[in-house]
Write a structure and sequence with these properties.
Elements (H helix, E strand, L loop, with lengths): L5 H15 L7 E5 L4 E4 L2 E4 L4 E7 L8 E8 L13 H8 L3 E5 L3 E6 L4 E2 L3 E2 L6 H12 L24 H15 L4 E6 L5 H14 L6 E5 L2 H15 L3 E3 L11 E5 H4 L9 H6 L7 E4 L7 H9 L5 E6 L13 H17 L4 E3 L1 H7 L4 E9 H5 L1 E2 H4 L4 E3 L14 E2 L8 E3 H17 L7 E4 L3 H21 L9 E3 L6 H13 L6 E4 L14 E4 L6 H8 L14 E6 L34 E3 L8 E12 L2 E6 H15 L3 H8 L2 H10 L3 H11 L7 H10 L6 H11 L1 H4 L4 H17 L13 H5 L13 H12 L2
Parallel strand pairs: 5-6, 10-15, 10-16, 11-13, 11-14, 12-13, 14-15, 17-26, 21-27, 22-24, 22-25, 23-24, 25-26
Antiparallel strand pairs: 1-4, 2-3, 4-5, 6-7, 7-8, 7-9, 17-28, 18-20, 19-27, 28-29
């Protein structure tokens, strides 16, 4: 029996049947994800993403239909249930209550209203739009004909093509809550996934439905405000304005403001400007951007003064924040902010994590390189310091022993105690790592402990770079490293951010404290570096998020590196429990009564050793981001792989069958994205993932795709000679395609459109032979991998 591929299965089987069931072309949206990016021969090559049907309900004439179900199409030769293992995940990711999987003959269903998976049934029995509408309205408690649901059917500004599937899902999740009569909503999406895009499209849809009178987009940084007004102007034109203390723009329909401008950032002062210009219930809709960034008391007056408004919180922090010690003030503040957000807004209506974004290809993968400084592990006491060359940071004068504190832990290094030798060693070590990973000219953010520390690190890296250029007979670029902090003075700091973002001959290394931790989009950032000790998981996630953009143009950056000198990546660790009540200081916590003098130990006093703590892989385990040391990850991968396939022969037999290969990859820790990252780290970009796994699990020497493709002809000469000349040439041409994209390339719907294959008879050359065409192709795959 000849089986259709996925494309023909869709065209010949699925489309005609579901159309007969009422799912016409206007009710089907095709959602595509870009997939990750592989680097082959130094160039970014996209791997195949997903392509899914979204089934939509027709409710109102001339309006966009409403997505309610996802249909996963599999080729005819696969079981209909393939893909249903991810049905619940799909329902959450696409925010639809129903998921179907079909091979064109049979289908199975998972539904949130029943929480059950059905047995296989003929595709012609699949629910029609009227049936799903009734089930949807009953389950969601929404009347789709009512005016309250109008925004669900409003179009996007710029059309459907401007949004990504998860942005559409987040918007629908919010509009459903509004249609249900709820006033509060929390959305949690990873940094770099376009929360401001979601905000502007939300307001646009609400405005089209006639529900918006006055809207406020509130943020806590000038950079976020600038980004926000650009998006709002794109939708509302001059009807969107920035709030200025000299002009609150009372006639504008959409206002964009910071907490500082509205005079609501200081919890101890009366918000005079806010009270005088914005009376109670002034706004119909309020969106708080980065609502985790400021303590509840700082912006709560905006919400409590507008109890009738629809209030939406946007956050980049996971609902369950992970890592950190629970007895630190930073951790407790994070716990309060997270819990207060959930207490006020409710559980997130939609969530999209870093790992989901990486798997879909919308966010760059993360390689973690962990380093440790020997001095940090033991700290320093007064006796260690008082005989050294110690000076006051501000005056440069020698300090008395009495001005030295009794003890300094590593967390206080670079804040109260600056060590020249330590800064020199860390800066040199980082620069050497840059040389090992492509050269010194890499866009980088280094998070430092203080303004002075950031300034000193910038100076040291600039000097190291200049000396390297002189030693290697190169002309150094000016402004290689620079400080970019709020202490630069506002205008100068703002002007430096575009230089980091766009300059190609300068401004490579930005040292900062926290100015670049949020609200700054640097798409081509290659490295995030921690020279600063971090205690706040929320702040840590924000800092990591600076590197997750996939480049400009989008997709040109597959991964970024995270250099960790302060064990900051421990914050990917264990869960903590949030509390919604203010925290009082622990009775046993020491209170610092005297003002600490900031001192510096000059050069040539310490011999600093920096140890390589290894690389790590960021994986998602049971919904929690988990950092696994690279070698430990390879051990886990090897153990899990051997549990699934006992030999390289069994691995090969699984690998050549699409559904078995997908199931195998999904079962491995970290999934396909982590395996692809291993391929990058092992410098095996020219190999199929099969060779990566064969090496990790069974010790086989990896071969490149080109090696396997070129060897196919002479290694299989005796097998090929059995077939007619045209068949041999087609099989050899098919094998040659392996060089371009690996095993996936041999399963492409366009395989028989390749010129060399078509010229020798294409698919027809495989007919009327002892082996069926699909068996011949399968045998070709197996022989390629031997």
């Amino acid at each position: 029996m000849l089986f259709r591929d996925e494309h023909l299965t869709r065209r010949d089987l699925i489309d005609p049947i579901i159309m007969r069931r009422g799912w016409t072309a206007d009710l089907i949206k095709i959602e595509k994800t870009p997939g990750g990016v592989d680097i082959v021969d130094g160039k970014p090559i996209k791997r195949k993403g997903r392509c899914d049907y979204l089934l939509c309900l027709p409710i109102k004439d001339g309006k966009s239909p409403l997505p309610v179900a996802i249909l996963e199409a599999k080729k005819e030769s696969l079981h209909a249930s393939m893909g249903l293992a991810q049905a619940k995940k799909y329902c959450q990711q696409f925010h639809v209550p129903f998921a179907f999987s079909t091979n064109g003959h049979l289908f199975v269903e998972y539904a949130e209203d029943t929480d059950m998976i059905t047995n296989e049934r003929p595709l012609i029995e699949m629910p029609n739009p009227d049936e799903l509408r009734h089930r949807y309205e009953t389950y969601k408690q929404i009347k789709l004909e009512s005016s309250a649901s109008d925004a669900l059917f409003s179009s996007y500004k710029g059309g459907e093509g401007v949004r990504r599937y998860y942005q559409d899902a987040a918007i629908r999740a919010t509009l459903e809550k509004i249609a249900q009569g709820e006033k509060r909503c929390l959305l949690s999406l990873a940094t770099g996934t376009g929360k401001t895009v979601i905000a502007k499209q939300l307001l646009y849809k609400i405005a089209l439905s006639g529900q918006l009178t006055k809207a406020l987009f509130l943020c806590d940084r000038d950079e976020l405000r600038t980004n926000g007004i650009g998006h709002m102007n794109d939708v509302f034109g001059d009807d969107a304005q920035i709030v200025d203390t000299s002009n609150p723009h009372p006639n504008a329909r959409v206002l964009v403001a910071t907490y500082q401008t509205l005079n609501v950032s200081d919890e101890d002062s009366t918000p005079v400007f806010w009270k005088e210009n914005f009376p109670p219930n002034y706004f119909s809709h309020i969106i708080i951007d980065e609502c985790h960034r400021s303590a509840w008391s700082r912006w709560s007056v905006v919400l409590t003064d507008n109890p009738n408004a629809v209030q939406i919180g946007l956050t980049a922090t996971p609902r369950i924040v992970v890592g950190g010690k629970s007895n630190t003030p930073e951790f407790q503040e994070d716990a309060e902010i997270t819990a207060n957000n959930v207490k006020y807004f409710g559980e997130p209506a939609y969530e999209y994590t870093i790992s989901q974004g990486q798997n879909d290809g919308y966010l760059a993968a993360c390689e973690v390189i962990r380093r440790s400084v020997d001095l940090d592990k033991k700290g320093l006491v007064r006796e260690d310091i008082q005989e050294l060359s110690v000076v006051d940071v501000f005056t440069g004068k020698k300090v008395n022993p009495s001005e030295i504190d009794e003890a300094y832990t590593a967390e206080r290094f670079d804040v109260d105690l600056l060590l020249e030798d330590r800064m020199n060693a860390m800066s040199q070590d980082l620069f050497d790592l840059f040389l090992d990973t492509g050269g010194p000219h890499q866009k980088t953010i280094i998070f430092c402990a203080s303004e002075y520390h950031a300034e000193q690190i910038a100076i040291k890296l600039q000097n190291i770079y200049t000396q390297w250029c002189h030693d290697n007979l190169r002309t150094p670029h000016k402004n290689y490293a620079f400080k970019c902090t709020s202490g630069n003075t506002g205008d100068k700091a703002k002007s430096l951010i575009p230089e980091l973002r766009g300059a190609i001959m300068s401004h490579y290394i930005a040292t900062t404290v926290d100015l670049l931790s949020t609200g700054v989009d640097i798409p081509n950032l290659q490295n995030v570096v921690f020279f600063k000790y971090i205690k706040s998981p929320i702040l840590f996630y924000q800092m990591v998020g600076r590197g997750t953009r996939t480049g400009n143009p989008i997709g040109s950056k597959m991964m970024f590196r995270l250099y960790d000198y302060t064990n900051a990546t421990r914050l990917f660790g264990e869960e903590f429990v949030s509390r919604a009540t203010p925290t009082k200081p622990d009775d046993d916590m020491p209170i610092q009564l005297k003002q600490i003098k900031k001192i510096k130990v000059l050069e040539n006093e310490f011999e600093i050793q920096i140890q390589n703590e290894g690389k790590s892989i960021l994986c998602n385990e049971d919904g929690i981001d988990t950092l696994i040391p690279y070698e430990e990850y390879k051990k886990r991968l090897s153990n899990r792989l051997i549990e699934e396939v006992s030999s390289v022969d069994e691995l090969r037999s699984h690998w050549v069958v699409y559904n078995k290969r997908r199931a195998l990859l999904d079962s491995l820790p970290g999934g396909e994205s982590a395996i692809r990252l291993i391929r990058e780290l092992e410098d095996e970009q020219e190999c199929d993932l099969y060779d990566v796994l064969a090496e990790v699990g069974f010790g086989y020497e990896p071969k490149s795709r080109a090696e396997r493709a070129s060897a196919f002809g002479y290694q299989n000469k005796d097998w090929l000679i059995k077939y007619p000349e045209n068949t041999r040439k087609v099989l050899e041409a098919i094998a040659k395609q392996f060089e371009h994209g690996g095993i996936d390339e041999l399963e492409s719907d366009s395989l028989f459109d390749v010129q060399e294959i078509k010229a020798n008879g294409g698919f027809t050359s495989l007919l009327r032979l002892p082996m069926q065409p699909n068996e011949l192709i399968n045998e070709t795959k197996i022989r390629l991998l031997r």
